[in-house]
Amino acid sequence: MRLQPTGKFDNSAKAYDHIAVAPLAAAMGARIDGVDLSALTDAQFDEIADALYRHKMIYFRDQQISHADQEAFTRRFGDFGTDAYTKGLADHPNIQPVVKEAETKTKMIFGEGWHTDSPFLARPPAISMLYGVDIPPYGGDTIWANTELAYDYLSDTMKTMLAPLKVHMSAIAVIGMIDRTNRETGAPAPEANAEAGPQQTKIGGMAIDIERQSMIEGSYHPLVRTHPVTGRKALYVEATYSQGIEGLTEEEAKPLLEFLAAHITQASFTCRLHWKANSFVVWDNRSCLHHAFNDYDGHRREMYRTTVEGEAPV
Fold first, then answer.
1. What pLDDT is recorded for position 176?
2. In this structure, which CATH number among 3.60.130.10, 3.40.30.10, 2.10.260.10, 3.40.50.10140 belongs to the domain 20-308?
3. pLDDT of the residue at 187
């Protein structure tokens, strides 16, 4: 593991005609200025999309947008993606509220742990978006890690070894943690042998529906995937959902998965964002991981999420 790698970092901003870009960190991330997301032009959107694929995560400050505005912006990237956990709003079913009340104290919150969104699906979300409405005065940051940069820093021998492998993405560990946390707090949890179909439970005080059986069965995806727009290769592995490697025993797969998860998330490959009210964040699940923090007890946090349907990873 290289703590301070050099030579492959290029998160510099391109010159655009309709937006301004300010990089957040050397590894990834950028702030987009000069844009009102409620009145976006086609030319601005084209440059925003280009910036997203370059910086992996982009964010906008001081955006006053409605649910309809968020839906319209999301649809510019493609169809709405499947959300495996949260419920949509009654009048905006593709917008999922992510709320933790000030009085809620829990060991587990939605989005914690290094992960990419819903990789156990056959077609995981390509892009995720969060609009922050009510933000704690401190805490609640999000960290992202650049999985393309992490792949670039592997040896040629390791790249060759990983190329044909498929990782088993399953929610078995997450569902187990949800059940244990709910038992400890007295909240109801579905039985492990419950019939297939949506089952209501809770995570961090939020009511969620889970398709227990299909989420545990999961999917096998290339451990090294190719971005459909840029053609760049990235590691598709993390510590939350990666449960095995096709063709390897558990003993063989475990140290390889642990090495790759630690390699991706070393500090040099990351950026960290402090949320502010009316911030809007967009990230590409195909080229980065993210991690939320449960460090703002006593403060309310209200966000709204949308996702863009992805393709089967290749």
1. 80
2. 3.60.130.10
3. 58
